Amino acid sequence: MVLTGTLVNAGLIVIGALLGLLFHRIPERMKETVTAAIGLAVILLGIQMGMKSENFLIVIGSLVVGSALGEWWKLDELLNEVGYRLERRLGSQSSVAEGFVTATLIFVIGAMAIIGALDSGLRGDHDVLYTKGLIDGFTALVLSSTLGIGVMFSAVPVLLYQGGIALLAIQIMKFIPESLMDSFILEMTATGGVMIVAIGLNLVGITKIRVANLLPGILVVGLIVSIIHTIN
């Protein structure tokens, strides 16, 4: 089934988050240290992704234009409002919004989500998403133990995002040349890597970057890469 990989990925996030909630009595000092450790690991992952760019000017331009659009559209506020509504509905005292936004950005941004969904849709190969699911599940366990139940709800945007790509993969590849798709994935990975670094810095407590407002940068990457491909 086309959505098998996506369903497994989302399911592992839910399972990991639920297991993490069982360890919510972890001492505060330990939570701070664990969160910082995850943040440092996320920063390293982002740096590795960012280094994959073949033209860093595309990354810079995409982030500048994308962040301007994100601030204009107030994406960070919209995402946080979803979390706040969940928080009010559940009557939770934990930061549902922070957990939801942080986990969503970590799980959705990255080449594995796109490549894995494309593999599921085009070749029926779910190995990439299975691997991503294991990583996401472990990350969800740690995050939910420190950020609360909001982490679990990040499985929904993961399901919609990856599932949508998988279902549309065949149609996408019919209209987009392979060379263009390869270039997009490469530069999207690097641009997403910068966002991942920002997430890590937020987790460590160094910054308070509104990372959600950077997300339009992914769309800008596609536009710039398409223009360059057309010119060449």
TrEMBL record:
Domain of life of the organism encoding this protein: Bacteria
* Spans through the membrane: 6-26, 33-50, 56-75, 96-118, 138-163, 184-205, 211-231
Q: Which organism is it from?
A: Exiguobacterium profundum
Protein name, entry field: DUF554 domain-containing protein
Name the keywords, alphabetized.
Answer: Membrane, Transmembrane, Transmembrane helix
State a single Pfam family of this protein.
DUF554
